[in-house]
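Re-run with default settings, no changes from the original entry. Doing this only to confirm the output is reproducible before filing.
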Amino acid sequence: MRLFVGLDLPDAVRAVLLDQITKLKPLSRGARWVRPESLHVTLKFIGSVNNDKLQPIQEILAMIRSSQPVDLNFRGSGFFPNERRPRVFWCGVEASPNLPDIAAALDQALVPLGIEAEARPYTPHLTLARFKSSEAVAALVKAADELKTRDFGSTTATNFQLYESLLKSTGAQYNRLASFPFVGESTASAH
């Protein structure tokens, strides 16, 4: 199974982003847009693991703690690696200082299970679309220019989720396996 840990979005933020995606979609035939229900902020991509690792992963996730909730502001947009050769169109995430600490704690806690630590520093973002090539993206890049400073909403997170990612011909489908509170008592609820 292919797993990752992420933060859900509130419906209000999801609705604003869906409105923007609907407007931008016709501008790039080469874009594979993320389904609105699949939008999330990734904390840790775990990758492919055997089913027997699921329980130990969940036990580790249930132990991750922060003294404060995470405040998230969804603001601006851009392209990885850049506008000239875009591979990903993203929405920016401004987060309270404890979010990178939580991501680092997840990263380090999973190493004993054989899950590699990230080589790059953690940068929170929402992936809105992916591109196989940079063909026919000029109109999208131009339209996205006015979104560089747009505010899409905010939320406060107190839980993160463990998801299974199923790769399908229609795109990735994410199934929530469990939700873990990271502020307060140490309990997990399966879904």
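The chain has a mean pLDDT of 89. The domain at 2-184 is CATH 3.90.1140.10 (Cyclic Phosphodiesterase; Chain: A,).
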